[in-house]
Design goal:
- By secondary structure, this protein is an alpha/beta fold.
- It contains eight helices and nine strands.
- The radius of gyration is 19 Å and the shape is globular.
Length: 254
């Protein structure tokens, strides 16, 4: 049964189930993407929920990795006695190679940013066939980082090897949702925390295709040849985003 998550709690519950389903299907390079403003600030809390999901099965074989040593130290202090490992993605003096051991069985990387793309890619190479789960990553912003075209192409190629087992992005009066193994769904925000299913695509809609689908969801008569951006009115877009995210932001502060 299709269901849209209207709170952060329900979104996390769906994300957990989708992650387990993807792992059971044999996938080993996963992303859990919650495209919600300021969600990275809750990375430690959400990271603990996902770590607890795997703690019983993996124990010390589970390694939770944060972008830097400060975030890792804070998590260790707040979580205290846990059965799994908590570490960071390394630094200039301590490369990621030193953070991976043969005893590690599953890696959970919490909220990596574009700065950590190279480290995450190295981690995936070092992990081999062991699962690597990127939790609320910000890696798609890699194009904003000042790197050359060739390097950007290499990083984008790496991002394409990752499977988004869960994806949620509220936009202007609509939302894009993906729950593995299903397709990419567009839901219409009807107001008062009520979302209505509109359509499902087998592949993630991007660019002009996403623009057309969003305009159709808004009730416009759109032809395949049209290329007018759906986000032409940026101020209206921001207003719609804030309205659609009201319940999520409220949940973040609870």
């Amino acid at each position: 049964m299709m269901e849209f998550p209207t709170t952060l709690e329900s979104a996390i519950a769906q994300a957990k189930q989708s992650t387990l389903t993807a792992l059971e299907a044999g996938l080993t390079r996963l992303q859990v993407e919650l495209k919600i403003p300021e969600i990275a600030l809750k990375g430690e809390i959400i990271g603990k929920e996902f770590a607890d999901l795997f703690a019983d099965d993996y124990g010390a074989g589970l390694k939770v990795l944060f972008p830097d040593s400060g975030a890792a130290a804070l998590a260790r202090r707040n979580w205290q006695d846990v059965s799994f490992q908590v570490n960071d993605l390394g630094s200039r003096n301590t490369p990621i190679e030193n953070k991976v051991s043969e005893d590690d069985q599953l890696f959970l990387v919490v909220s990596p940013s574009p700065v950590e793309v190279q480290k995450v890619e190295k981690l995936c190479n070092l992990a081999g066939d062991r699962p690597v789960i990127l939790l609320i990553p910000q890696l798609e912003d890699v194009t904003t980082v000042g790197i050359g075209y060739a390097a950007r192409q290499l990083r984008e190629r790496f991002l394409n090897t990752l499977e988004s087992c869960y994806f949620l992005q509220p936009m202007d009066d609509v939302a894009l949702l993906r729950r593995f193994p299903g397709g990419w769904q567009i839901w219409i925000d009807k107001g008062e925390n009520n979302f209505e299913f509109f359509c499902e695509e087998p592949e993630k809609p991007v660019g002009d295709k996403l623009d057309r689908l969003l305009r159709k969801a808004a009730g416009e008569d759109v032809s395949e040849e049209e290329e007018q951006p759906v986000f032409a009115n940026q101020s209206s877009q921001r207003k719609g985003i804030l309205g659609s995210l009201q319940s999520f932001l409220k949940a973040l502060n609870q």
